[in-house]
Amino acid sequence: MLLLALATPSLAATLVVSSAGPYTTIGSAITAAATGDTITVAAGTYTECIDYGGKNLTIVGEGSATTTLNGNGSCTNAVAVDSGESAAVLSGFTLRNSTNRGIYVAAAVLAIDDVAVTSTGNAGISGGGAYINDGTFSATNSSFYANTGYYGG
Question: pLDDT band for position 73 (50/70/90)?
């Protein structure tokens, strides 16, 4: 008897973050997401920092002019991609006010588009705007300005 098993492909989900929900924070959407999912973020200011948590996610704000991730001086990195992610994407945000770095990538891959990184870092660390350690980083249509770092902002 010949038995064939057919694999059912999984479909990527789109999770929505807005003041009306279903997710009101980007972090809660990341927790609920699976690798391959897309998280869309409504315009506004989100006072939090995010970590992709080892998931290959696409996180898309409405645009860097209208969607802000504000670390409020209470988190180390506005965006962390440091758990082996191989295809993380961030688009359409302004990142500001993290205590160490706007973007931290270690042993992972991150591509950004339409991202402004400003007012991050401090004089005691390297790479206030972005710090890439044994990872791959690409930026298009993005800007880094008014950041502070020991070896460059």
Answer: confident
